Amino acid sequence: MKKKLAIMIVSLAVGVLAQAAERRAPKKHPDSAQWPSLFKADLSDAVFPKGVWTVSDGVLTASKDEAIWAKKDYENFVLDLEFKNASGTNSGVIVYCSDMKEWIPNSVEIQIADDFAKQWAESPPTWHCAAIFGRKAPTKSVVKKPGEWNRMTIACKRRGSRSCSTGNWSPTST
Q1: What is the DSSP letter of 40?
Q2: Which pLDDT band, with edges at 50, 70 and 90, does 36 fall under?
Q3: Mean pLDDT lowest among 9-23, 33-47, 62-76, 146-160
Q4: What pLDDT score does 129 carry?
Q5: What's CA 76's distance to the chain center, in Å?
Q6: Per the structure, how many domains does the chain have?
Q7: Is residue 109 one of the residues assigned to a domain?
Q8: Is 171 within a domain?
Q9: Which pTM value belongs to this model?
Q10: β-pair partners for 69
Q11: What phi and psi values does residue 90 have, to the nearest 5 degrees?
Q12: Strands, E, within 18-135: which ranges?
């Protein structure tokens, strides 16, 4: 079964990496300054609908709600990313997927959402930002208001069954 990593967010700083994960999510963000990017600046190592995703000044942006997938398969990894929500955002990072065409029932998603928007604030906790969507709520809400940069570190390690954690992440100013 193939596992794919997809990024489905409106704005994502490209400084991300998939690399060997620790047993638990890091207590602090890792120093990812020397990590290679998940996607090349020309997006030649990504799968996405033509004309939707672009990179400008190191920021990955979508013009509409479509996934971008890594061509390479990842199983155990740490992903460190920055994102900025728009008002009402409902997005996420697909960390494991066995079917890219029917990904919703065949994947694990780390939620990225505007928890300040009424529809998401009043949704089940497993739909809030940093949740393992529909499975595990975040321990606390620390997402910043729309328009501000956030930072999230996701660690995934296979231990009998798939295991992912957003751990103790917190937004940062960038």
Answers
A1: -
A2: confident
A3: 9-23
A4: 96
A5: 15
A6: 1
A7: yes
A8: no
A9: 0.76
A10: 6, 47
A11: -135, 105
A12: 46-47, 53-56, 59-62, 68-70, 77-84, 90-97, 107-113
Q: Which domain holds residue 48?
A: 6-165
Alpha helical stretches, state H, 95-146? 118-121
Which residue type occupies 107?
Answer: S
Identity of the residue numbered 51: G
130: nearest Cα among 115, 119, 149, 118: 115
Answer yes or no: is pLDDT of 150 > 80.
Answer: yes
Are 70 and 4 a contacting pair, CB within 8 Å?
A: yes
**At which residue do the structure tokens 């009424």 appear?**
118
Residue pointed to by tokens 């940093």: 130
CA distance 150 to 67: 20
Q: Look-up: residue for tokens 């740490």?
A: 78
Positive or negative CA dihedral for 35, 53, 103, 147?
positive
Alpha-carbon gap, residue 1 to 35, rounded angstroms: 27
Report whether pLDDT(77) > 70: yes
Instruction: Let me know if residue 141 belongs to a domain.
Output: yes
| CATH number, residue 52 | 2.60.120.560
| 120 DSSP assignment | H
